[in-house]
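Supplementary Note 3. Input sequence used for the single-chain structure prediction.
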Amino acid sequence: MDRFKRKLKPEFSEKVYRVVKKIRRGETMSYKKVAEAAGSPRAWRAVGNILNKNKNPEIPCHRVIRSDGKIGGYNKGAEKKVLLLKKEGLTI
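The predicted structure, written as discrete structure tokens, is reproduced below.
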């Protein structure tokens, strides 16, 4: 199977959601660190794809940023992500 055509395993998605759910208000974690904590250190792109599909408000996807400190994507738009992070006391 071509490694780029693999489907995301539901087990990995659940691990990602558990990790992200533990990120406290006012804190962030990089996509890479989430991937590492979920047990797949090289799957940071998969983490982004998983979080982009998330509709559960209990999973604070807006707290996951790029390793270089930039905001990265958000399924409700980057502007909304910035507003949420600022509301939590982070300087962007």
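Residues 31 and 44 are 5 Å apart (CA to CA). The chain has one domain: 10-53+60-87.
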